[in-house]
Amino acid sequence: MSWGDLPQVEPALVRSYRLVNSKYPPIALFDDVADPDEFEALHELQARTNPRLMNEVGRLEFIASSEIPFGIQGCSYAVAPFTHINPAGSRFSDGSFGILYLADTITTALAEVQHHQQLYWSGVEGLAFDRILLRGLSCKFDQTGLLDMTGLPLDHPVYDPHDYTAARVAGAQLKQASTPGFKYHSVRHPDSHCWALLTPRPVRSIVQSTHFEMIWDGRNISSVNKIASV
């Protein structure tokens, strides 16, 4: 099928949720400037004096400055997935481009993260205990122009729980077509949905909400707890 033929979602300002590892702080440079020109000037200045800047900001060549929503609250959270790309990829990316994944509820976000964290810990030989602290984020974005993948049946190959081949083909085609993103069924939390933003442009704000911890007991994630303070 031609993925560009998918219907569009109804235009709306949407609230969504995301979890990130709390060991990664916001990137101050993105939040301290209001426009691309100011960013370029400050980035050039700091690059001369801060050798850690490249690690903090990430690979700026992966995103055009016109894609960055400068001036919004939480700009760094919106941009980070596009400058710090997991080379192993994700459901809709082979690792050559970034995606901002968002969920309809914090419960859906937890289910998605728990699945992938379980896979990661299961692959660490001899790991008897571990703990990850996650920062909850509340995101508002404009879904105008996003495509709707929720009309596809749950047994469609893009929703395969283990094989991402079909999903990555879809993601690559939509990225190449400059599609801003799409809505799809959550694979890890039934009767829920997520969004995959292929650019941070639609984001209007991202703010920190609640922290959570996941505990690994050597075999499984034994508990997921809401943290009052960190």
Automatic annotation (TrEMBL):
Pfam families: RES
RES domain sequence ranges: 81-209
UniProt xrefs under SMART domains: RES
Superkingdom, natural source: Bacteria
InterPro entries recorded: RES_dom
Protein name as it appears in the record: Res domain protein
